[in-house]
Amino acid sequence: MRKTLIILFIVCGLGLIGWVGYGYSTSGEEVARFELAGEAGNTGLVTLDPSMNPMRAILSVSYDIELLAGSASAFDYSIILTGPGGAALFKAEGQQRDKREDNTPEYASKTSEQVIKTFDISAPGQYLLDWQISPEDAQIKTQTIFLRRNVQPLRVPVLIAGAVSVGLGFLLLVWRRKRPTFS
Length: 183
Description:
This protein is α+β, with helices and mostly antiparallel strands. Helix content is about 25%, strand content about 45%. It has helices at about 1-25, 155-180; strands at about 30-35, 40, 45-50, 55-65, 70-80, 90-100, 105-120, 125-135, 140-150. The strands form 2 sheets. Strands 2, 3, 5, 6 and 8 form a 5-stranded antiparallel sheet that branches. Strands 1-9-4-7 form a 4-stranded antiparallel sheet, with no helix packed on it. The mean pLDDT is about 90.
């Protein structure tokens, strides 16, 4: 019975964390999707207005990577959203790193989906995304930027509850194993 309770804590906690993460990245309605080609460029103009707030930009990249050294830098990215008059609304930069896990192949096909930025539109108008995705150890197959409107914020209390549940489950598991057993 105790083992089932411990497993239930861990599974429910992981489920809550996954549910919050999935809801965070997929909430709202897709306004624009830009299929990117090459290492740099800009998207077509997209009309945005404050009624779409809050908005979220998501980067999805599918790639092949060789993980011989155990850890590899797949690609670097830089994305800038400019609005009317050329003012930058946001700039996001980052790097995707992959680590080889035990029993995984040295060559893998992966998809990275990252929330780039959650932002608000202050004035209606035409907006443009400038982007640069520089592959390092990866061979990029596809790359896409999504803009979603009326997105939900991250549900921090539920995320904390999930993390506490997982932590408590592992703590109970460790405590149960360290308890002396008497015959």
